[in-house]
Design brief:
The chain is an all-alpha fold. Helix content is about 70%, strand content about 0%. The protein is built from five helices and no strands. The longest helix is centred in the first third of the chain and has 34 residues. The mean pLDDT is about 80.
Length: about 110
């Protein structure tokens, strides 16, 4: 084996490892996006993303679209209301926070 043969094998190995790494990252992305956006079905989106990788990309577009959508009738959780309130309180827009949340806001939110 000459130097060029070894170099060619090394380049092929690096290329194969890069393709596998990108494919794994594509499988993880829909689940991470959904989790970051506090999607109520983030676990199912994560599974759909991994099945998309296993099926060679058939389900990946569905997983990405699903990660960026919000299901009809989904209400904000208490955590969302608290984050909205904190943001608006810091920016002096507490009236806007009170309009966006339907539940009473606990007073502890303002001092935590």
């Amino acid at each position: 084996m000459t130097f060029l043969d070894v170099f060619a094998l090394f380049v092929l190995f690096v290329l194969a490892a890069t393709v596998v790494g990108i494919w794994v990252m594509l499988g993880m992305m829909p689940g991470k996006i959904a989790h970051k956006r506090n999607h109520p079905q983030s676990e199912a989106i994560n599974v759909c993303g991994w099945w998309g990788v296993i099926t060679l990309g058939i389900l990946l577009p569905l997983a990405f679209i699903w990660a960026y959508t919000n299901p009809q009738g989904h209400r904000h959780t208490d955590k969302d209301a608290i984050e909205i309130t904190r943001f608006c309180w810091k920016n002096g827009k507490i009236g806007q926070a009170l309009k966006t949340t339907s539940d009473p806001i606990p007073i502890e939110v303002f001092w935590s």
